[in-house]
Structures are given as C-alpha cells and as structure tokens.
Amino acid sequence: MGSRTLSLFLYNALLPFGLLYLGPAALIKLRQRGGGWADFGQRLGLWSQERIETLEALPKGQTLWVHAVSVGEVGVARKLIMELVRQSPGAGIILTTTTPTAYRLAIELEQSHKGKVVALYSPLDLPWVARRVLRRFNPSQIVLVEAEVWPNMVSQANKRGIPVSLVNARLSSRSERRYRSFGSLVAPIFGMLNRVMVQEEQDMERWAAIGAQEDAITVTGSIKYDPQGSSPAQEKVQTLSALLREAGMADRPLLLAASTHAGEETAIASIYQDLSSEIPQLGLLVVPRHFERGKQVAEELQSLGLCPLLRSSLQPGSAKQADVMVIDSTGELRAWLELSTVVIMGKSFLAEGGQNPAEAVMAGKPVVFGPHMENFGPLVDLLLHAKGALQVQDLSALKEELKGLLLDTNSRSSLAEAGQKALLRHDGATARTALILLSVQTEERKKCL
Length: 449
Description:
Elements: H1 3-32, H2 49-56, E1 63-67, H3 71-87, E2 92-97, H4 100-112, E3 117-121, H5 127-137, E4 141-145, H6 151-159, E5 164-169, H7 173-180, H8 183-190, E6 195-198, H9 201-209, E7 217-219, H10 234-246, E8 254-260, H11 264-276, E9 283-288, H12 294-302, E10 309-310, E11 324-326, H13 333-338, E12 342-345, H14 358-362, E13 367-369, H15 377-385, E14 390-391, H16 395-407, H17 409-422, H18 429-448
Parallel strand pairs: 1-2, 1-4, 2-3, 4-5, 5-6, 6-7, 8-9, 8-12, 9-11, 10-11, 12-13, 13-14
Helix pairs in contact: 1-8, 3-4, 3-18, 5-6, 11-16, 16-17
C-alpha cells in the first residue's frame, strides 16, 4: 500500500467518527448563526433545480471552484475573485464556504456578479460526495484559500486531472509542529497540490517541510494585506455614518474593539469607563467575533452600568442615543473601521492566537493588541518593527496606551501611517495570485488541444 493510499485509508476510516462527534455541535451552530436545515443538503452535494441551472449557466471549461472556510477567508476570496473577473472577463467562479455568516457574504458577491459567481455551501469531504460534486461542478481548477486542504477532494481532483491551488497560504509555527508530528501521513496529501502561493519567504520552508513540492511553492505576498481592493463600499460607510448620527455618536472619538472573544468585552468596557471620565465625548464600538453573541455581550455591558445599543435595533429614524454600540451584524467590520479613531484587536488578551490586524491597518487606523497574537507572527513582527502598531503586555497597560493615542493626534497619525507603509510590501499580491491561477488555466487548456 502506497503512502498516499495509506493516508487516505486512515483518514476515511476516522472521518465518520469525527463527523459523528462534531456533527451535532456543528448543526446547532448552523442554526444559531442563521443557517437552515435545508442548507445541509448542499453539504451532501444536493442542490435545488434553481441552483443546478445557475451552475450549468457558468462558462464551460473556464470555471474555477474557490473554497473559503469562514468570513476572513471569504474576504480574501472576494478580492481575488474580483481580480480574476477583471483579468479574465470570460471566467466563471463557484464560491463555496462553510459557515452561515460567510455564506451570506458569498451570496452578496453572487448578486453583484450575476452570471459569473455562484455561492454554495461547501460539501463534506466524503469520497462519494467529492466524486458527485466534481462531476456536477466540472471545474477547470480548484482554488483553496489559506489553509484548508481536503484529502478526498484533492485526491479525486488529482485523478480527474483537475489542478488544485492553495492561495494566500499561511502556516503558523504551531500548525507546522502539529503537521510535522504526522509527517508521513500528511505529506502525501500536501504533495498533491499543484500550486502553493505563500505570503512570506519563511512560509516556503514550512510548506515544503510538511510535504508540498518545492517547485510548486511561490511567494506572492498576502491578498489580505494587499492595499489594492481593500476599501469598503462607500455606500456602506455612509449608511453606518448615518446610523452613528442617529445614535448621537458621530463626530466623536470612537474606540473600536474588533473581533472580541468572551471576557474581553467587559474588560475593555471597564477601561472605556475610566477613559470616558477624562475624555467625555468618547464612544465605544464593540464587534464580537461571533455576531450571535451580540445580545449576551450587551447584557454583560449593562451589568457594568453602561447602556449599550445593539446595531440591529438601530434603524434610520429611530433616534436612539448611546455612547456604546454592540455590532451584532455581519460583513460590516471594514466599514466600521473607517469610522473609528483607535482599534483594539480581540482574542489577544484573554485567549490565544489573536485576530488579524491587517484590515484596521489598511484602513489607516492606529492599532493596539495584547500579548497573544501567535497566529499572526510574521505580520506582527513586521508591524512592530516598522512601529506601525502597539503591543501591550496586559489589560492594565492597555488603558495608558489608549489614553495617549486618544489625546495625541500626531501619535495616532504616525502609528497609522507607519502601519500602512509596512504593508506596502504586499501591494499587488492579489493581481500576482490571479495571474498565476489564470496561467494554470491556460496550461490546462493547451493540454486539451
């Protein structure tokens, strides 16, 4: 039995147990985040007749299947898809995603690119589902965003001669160690990837170490950090600006706590309370990482004596006044960043890993994060070296740093400008990635002639 066959055998032997163990929680989360039971059919490769007809209308032989797991990956996919369509107007895109929140964003992209983009839920990586989906999609190429590689899907694509590319690939040191501990089992899977487009030079060695072919690895820079195509729709910014006016929070300094996790909201709100006694006009925007926690977060802030508004309760003409707003909506973070004064990154104080500060930096905002940014090591090193962000050791140090930034316009401007300049090394990453993908398309078409 070859190493690849053994890897797939063990994966498929364990997969049913994993699905049984994780399935109930995944279904509950699906419902909590707005997904419907009918959506589960798409995960088995079952679609409505309307969806099938939409798929069949895509260009034959020029359709790429792009898979993006969650909201962050869909943001990357959106930029890449728009560039692919720009460079190759005749291309079609199937965009699959895993979470209901990300799916809603994917549907928005489909609606803005009628006839070119079709959004679906990602199928389960079962062998028979993989075969069924590939027969229906018949993509000219599969494009995986950032890190998720499905063994059965990649294997079935390999058998059918469909190239598989991994774009914006990232691999933390922790993930590399985990993969290396199963080196002989994972290497054959990663070895099937035709292209691996990584964000940084140091990523090349990491991906090669876990099995990717060295001649398949290319440094393109990060799509997520690419300033090109990163600006939010101005209509969205104007809409949210109007809501701030309704709430009496416009034209005021605003702290924005981005992608927060449990416990961070109350900790940051307590700091906000102390700061607001010295900066009376200060407002606070809290954006939980999972929007369905919005109501719970609002209740926790109320226990501190605050009177927060839920974003969902604020509509044009409602005229509700507030100093604190909890953003319980999706797809708006980039626009809220535009309207903020200082940004605090979540998951960096009371949890490990951190959240991506790139969007806030690209928005030209001063960014502060805590000690736990393990998932974004190269980016954090880049920003800190360029003095383009501030890292504090704990919540007690956060207050003084925020106070200094809020009271000193020059400090804010210097930090924000340095951060933007640091990310210029990724300028053009989206266009470079799209060009490589389209060259793969061209190579495959030549083989068929």
